[in-house]
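Milestone 3.1: sequence recovery, worked example.
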């Protein structure tokens, strides 16, 4: 079939025009399905920043974060681009997109490490990890990252208001990590794997001795040492428990264990006598206690629940419009 030329358009240009016309709806559908990138519409920095601030006040955090990112994209050398970068990370935090919040705050620190809002950026990273802490029955990698981020904030900026809140959260994070060690230790104890349980309880005493799990860890050490036949170590653990927590239930249980399983003195051998008479077959391991090991009493102790973030401590660095040019760290409402 011959294609007749249209006035002002050669015949060979018609297929190209048809292909382009068909491609436009497809491209439009792809953009609408993705919905991640805003179409580029040139706007001044004041309009963009004010629009993002209004979305933030209305609780439309995802839209606010996208508009704050647009400020940085369209006006990268403006002073408001730096503020919008941190405000975008804060908007992602409020939207519970913690990965994007961490990336935004870390990008801000990599570009502006000496900025006066750097302490808040470190605080935002730590809070984003802190909000993702799971219960003690699951992996605690995020908890360790929260501990590292909180410690970095305290180390770099010890006299800021963010560091004061970070110290409180750091104590809770350490208590949570100790709870994980206790959970694993009780699991080994229920399976009568005394040595593995002892190592877990010992770690709590050595690394987390100021947490709320220390009394139980000392009592569990008394149990496992008695089960291993190492009575001297069991007496030491019970003595430390009695000296530091004399009126606790854990000390009463440890004292009862030591009373129910007293030491059995061994009569001295006469001179020249053999320890094991010839021809005697024994199945006992040398150095093992002859008495029956104490029954492991490892109930599912209550561990502290996952602590949430403190919304009152998350103060955004800036919530004003460029028309007023305020200090980005002053007079900011609590989300």
């Amino acid at each position: 079939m011959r294609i007749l030329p249209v006035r002002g358009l050669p015949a060979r240009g018609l297929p190209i025009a048809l292909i382009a016309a068909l491609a436009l709806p497809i491209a439009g559908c792809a953009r609408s399905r993705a919905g991640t990138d805003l179409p580029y519409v040139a706007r001044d920095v004041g309009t963009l920043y004010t629009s993002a601030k209004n979305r933030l006040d209305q609780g439309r955090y995802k839209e606010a974060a996208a508009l704050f990112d647009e400020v940085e994209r369209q006006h990268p050398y403006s002073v408001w681009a730096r503020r919008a970068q941190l405000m975008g990370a804060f908007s992602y935090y409020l939207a519970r997109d913690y990965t994007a919040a961490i990336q935004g705050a870390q990008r801000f620190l990599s570009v502006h490490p000496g900025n006066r809002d750097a302490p808040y950026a470190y605080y935002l990273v730590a809070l984003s990890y802190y909000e993702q802490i799971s219960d003690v029955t699951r992996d605690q990698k995020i908890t360790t990252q929260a501990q590292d981020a909180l410690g970095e904030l305290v180390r770099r900026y010890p006299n800021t208001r963010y560091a004061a809140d970070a110290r409180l959260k750091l104590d809770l994070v350490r208590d949570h990590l100790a709870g994980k060690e206790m959970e694993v230790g009780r699991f080994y104890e229920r399976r009568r794997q005394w040595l593995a349980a002892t190592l877990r309880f010992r770690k709590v005493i050595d690394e987390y001795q100021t947490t709320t799990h220390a009394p139980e860890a000392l009592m569990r050490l008394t149990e496992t040492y008695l089960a291993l036949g190492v009575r001297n170590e069991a007496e030491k653990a019970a003595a430390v428990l009695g000296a530091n927590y004399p009126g606790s239930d854990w000390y009463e249980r440890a004292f009862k264990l030591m009373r129910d399983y007293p030491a059995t003195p061994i009569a001295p051998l006469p001179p020249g006598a053999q320890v094991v008479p010839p021809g005697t077959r024994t199945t006992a391991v040398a150095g093992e206690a002859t008495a029956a090991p104490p029954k492991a009493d490892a109930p599912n102790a209550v561990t502290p629940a996952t602590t949430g973030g403190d919304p009152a401590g998350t103060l955004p660095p800036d919530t004003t419009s460029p028309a007023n040019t305020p200090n980005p760290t002053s007079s900011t409402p609590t989300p």
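The two ends are 68 Å apart (CA to CA). Residues 67 and 172 are 35 Å apart (CA to CA).
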